[in-house]
Amino acid sequence: MRPPTRRRGNARAARQRARRRSDRRTHERQPRHDHDCRCRRRRHRPKRQLRFTVVASASTTSHRASAATAAVSLSSSGSTRQRGVFPGSFNPPTTAHLAISEAVVGQHRLDVLVWSVSRVALAKEDVQRPRLADRIAVLEEVAAPIDWLEIDVTDAQLLSDIAAGFDVIVMGADKWQQIHDPVFYGNDPAQRDASIAALPAVAIAARPPHDCPAELVLNLPDWVGTVSSTQARTTDPALMAPEAARFDAETGAWTDPARYETWLARQRGN
Question: Domain ends where: 22, 51, 72?
Fold first, then answer.
């Protein structure tokens, strides 16, 4: 028996309504699905960014630590300034003193060279004129325009004591021979040997006829070995450093003792 037509229509309509409802639900569900996905992506992005930030920070920290270590190492090596000492009375300072100083700074790659003057120089205890204060003032004037040159006054007399803490010590070949004489060490060869062994690297200015180890000799023009402070005081003031020559011309400090005493008297009167 065939079902009524109305019922077939009703069934067809019901199926159509069901399909429409299904389509509607699918249509409504899709935006919600997209929205949820977008929300999840938005939630994930900060996390990825955070993870990246953390990783980057760790990497940066490690890099900075390595850079800091390298910087400290470079700073340490850079801050290790090479310092030399040139002991002497510089009475007066001469053109040879300047030439020797320039040579040792260049050949030993020094950052600083100190002219060190003992208040009472060994084997020169009787030196009274010019006054130490005037000599030091002249040396300070010599050093003023030279950025690597410094002046120091010390109570020490032995070279091993003067050279303590320096990288290089400068001396003439005559001084090299002198420091091997036990008389300056209370005639005690053991003390002499210990003092010489305590010296830093030695740079020697040749001075014929004095002998010295060839490997210690500075490369200098031959004329340097012929110049002495004694010569500058007694026969050739032109050998003085310019600042010393000017002071001597004004006061007679090295070439005219009587005029120097007159100058001192005027200074005391003022």
Answer: 72
pLDDT of 159 strictly over 50: yes
- CATH for 143: 3.40.50.620
Q: Do residue 232 and residue 107 come from a single domain?
A: yes
Nearest to 196 by CA among 181, 216, 209: 181
Task: Give me the phi and psi of 143, to 5 degrees please.
Answer: -75, -20
Whether residue 200 lies inside any domain: the answer is: yes
What is the domain extent for residue 174? 83-269
Separation CA 222–CA 80 (nearest Å):
33
Domain co-membership, 138 together with 230: yes
Residue 103 — φ and ψ, nearest 5°? -65, -45
- Of 18, 47, 72, at which residue does a domain stop? 72
Provide the residue count of the chain: 270
Cβ partners under 8 Å of residue 93, min gap 6: 115, 138, 139, 142, 229, 240, 241, 243, 244
Contact status, residue 212 vs residue 177, Cβ threshold 8 Å: yes
Q: SS3 for 84?
A: strand
Number of domains in the chain: 2
For residue 37, how far is the Cα from the chain centroid?
63
| pLDDT score of 179 more than 80 | yes
Predicted pLDDT at 24: 57
Tell if the pTM clears 0.90, that is, is over it: no
- 252 and 169 in one domain? yes
Half-sphere exposure of residue 11, counting CA atoms within 13 Å on the CB side?
A: 5
The DSSP letter of residue 104 is H
In terms of domains, do 12 and 66 share one? yes
Q: Please, where are the H alpha helices in the chain?
A: 5-79, 95-107, 132-143, 159-162, 173-178, 189-197, 229-234, 242-251, 257-269
